[in-house]
C-alpha cells in the first residue's frame, strides 16, 4: 500500500535521524537565566543572519509575532496589517487579548499593501482616535499562496513608516523561502524592519521553535513578554540544536519544494473545474479555486483523502497544498495522476 501524500502543511515535517542525534547531544542550561549555550549560539547566529543586535528563541511563530506586537505598542494603539495575514486571521485575537491593540486590516493584492492606502489609514494625532504605532507585513504570504513581498515595495513602506514615526514588524515565518527563491539575503530583507520573526518548524524541518530579532532594547522587552506569556523553556537547547541543524542542512533545498509546487500547480490548473492563479505560485504553496467544479472544497478534500492524498480546505471554495521536506518528485507525480484520473475529462 502506498504511503499517504500529506500536502496539508509544511508544519508536518519531522526531525530526521541526523537531527535527532544532534538534539540528543546538545549542551543545555537554564535559558530563563540566559545560560543555555545552544540557545545562546542560535540567537547569536540569527542576530548575525538578520543584521540585528539580538534575537530571542521562542516556542512558535504566533508567540514571536505577539511578543513583537506587545513590545512595539501600548494598549489603545492601532496596528496596520494586510487583510489575509496570519496575525489578523490565525492568532486567536491575540493582539487585542494580549496587547490591548486593535488591528486595521487593509486589502493587498498578492499580500502587498499599497503604500498610499496605508498612508491614508494612518490616524491623525487626535485624542478621538487610536494612534497608529506599527505596520506589519508577511513574507512569504500564506493565504495568498506563498507570494513573495517585493523588496522595492518593502522599502517604500519603510520610507513611509519613517516619515510618520512608525515601527515595522515582519512576519517572516517563511522568509527562508523568499530568500532562497529571490537570492535576496535575510539581512537585506530584515534591514527594513524594526523586528522580524522566523520559523524553524515549517520547511526547515525542526520539531519546534521560532525566533524574533531586533535591537538589544527591543529584545530586552521581548524577553519580558516571553516570560509573561509563559514562554521560558528552561533547558531547551535540545530544540535550539534542531534549529541550528535545520539552518545548516535544510535551507538551500527549499528550492526543490518550490519547483515541485510549480509542477503540481501547472498540472492541476489544467483540470476542469480547478483554477489556480499561477502568478501566486512563487514558493511552496498552491491555492486552488474549486468554484467551477460543482463541488465544495471540503468535499474534494474528503475525496482525495480516500485516494491517499491530503490537502486542506482553506474556504468553501479554496484548497491549499504545501510542498515540504517529506514530499518528493514521485509524490507530486502520483498526486497529479490521482487528480487527473478523478477530475480530468
In short:
This protein is α/β, with parallel strands linked by helices and 345 residues long. The protein is built from 14 helices and twelve strands.
Describe the structure.
The chain is an alpha/beta fold. The protein folds into two domains: 17-248, 3-Layer(aba) Sandwich (Aspartate Aminotransferase, domain 2), CATH 3.40.640; 253-343, Aspartate Aminotransferase, domain 1 (Alpha-Beta Complex), CATH 3.90.1150. It is built from 14 helices and twelve strands. Strand 11 and strand 12 (318-322) form a beta hairpin. Helix 1 (17-24) packs across helix 11 (237-249), helix 3 crosses helix 10 (216-228) and helix 12 runs parallel beside helix 14 (329-343). It is globular. The two termini are 27 Å apart. The mean pLDDT is 97.
Amino acid at each position: 500500500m502506498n504511503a499517504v501524500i500529506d500536502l496539508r502543511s509544511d508544519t508536518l515535517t519531522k526531525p530526521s535521524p541526523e537531527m535527532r542525534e544532534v538534539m540528543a547531544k546538545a549542551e543545555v542550561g537554564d535559558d530563563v537565566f540566559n545560560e543555555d549555550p545552544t540557545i545562546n549560539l542560535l540567537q547569536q547566529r540569527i542576530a548575525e543572519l538578520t543584521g540585528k543586535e539580538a534575537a530571542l528563541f521562542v516556542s512558535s511563530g504566533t508567540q514571536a509575532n505577539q511578543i513583537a506586537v506587545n513590545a512595539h505598542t501600548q494598549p489603545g494603539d492601532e496596528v496596520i496589517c494586510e487583510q489575509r495575514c496570519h496575525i489578523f486571521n490565525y492568532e486567536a485575537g491575540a493582539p487585542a487579548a494580549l496587547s490591548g491593540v486593535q488591528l486595521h486590516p487593509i486589502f493587498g493584492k498578492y499580500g502587498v499593501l499599497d503604500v498610499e492606502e496605508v498612508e491614508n489609514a494612518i490616524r491623525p494625532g487626535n485624542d478621538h482616535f487610536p494612534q497608529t504605532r506599527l505596520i506589519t507585513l508577511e513574507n512569504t504570504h500564506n493565504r495568498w499562496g506563498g507570494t513573495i513581498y517585493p523588496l522595492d515595495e518593502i522599502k517604500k513602506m519603510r520610507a513611509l513608516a519613517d516619515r510618520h514615526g512608525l515601527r515595522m514588524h515582519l512576519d517572516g515565518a517563511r522568509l527562508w523561502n523568499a530568500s532562497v527563491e529571490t537570492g535576496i539575503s535575510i539581512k537585506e530583507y530584515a534591514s527594513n524592519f524594526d523586528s522580524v520573526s522566523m520559523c524553524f518548524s515549517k520547511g526547515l524541518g525542526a520539531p519546534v521553535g521560532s525566533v524574533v530579532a531586533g535591537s538589544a532594547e527591543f529584545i530586552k522587552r521581548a524577553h519580558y513578554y516571553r516570560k509573561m506569556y509563559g514562554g521560558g523553556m528552561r533547558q531547551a537547547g535540545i530544540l535550539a540544536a534542531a534549529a541550528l541543524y535545520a539552518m545548516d542542512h535544510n535551507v538551500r533545498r527549499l528550492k526543490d519544494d518550490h519547483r515541485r509546487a510549480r509542477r503540481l500547480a501547472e498540472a492541476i490548473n489544467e483540470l476542469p473545474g480547478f483554477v489556480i492563479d499561477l502568478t501566486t505560485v512563487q514558493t511552496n504553496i498552491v491555492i486552488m479555486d474549486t468554484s467551477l467544479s460543482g463541488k465544495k472544497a471540503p468535499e474534494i478534500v474528503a475525496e482525495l483523502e480516500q485516494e491517499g492524498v491530503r490537502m486542506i480546505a482553506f474556504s468553501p471554495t479554496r484548497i491549499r497544498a504545501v510542498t515540504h521536506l517529506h514530499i518528493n518528485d514521485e509524490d507530486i507525480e502520483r498526486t497529479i495522476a490521482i487528480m487527473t484520473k478523478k477530475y480530468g475529462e
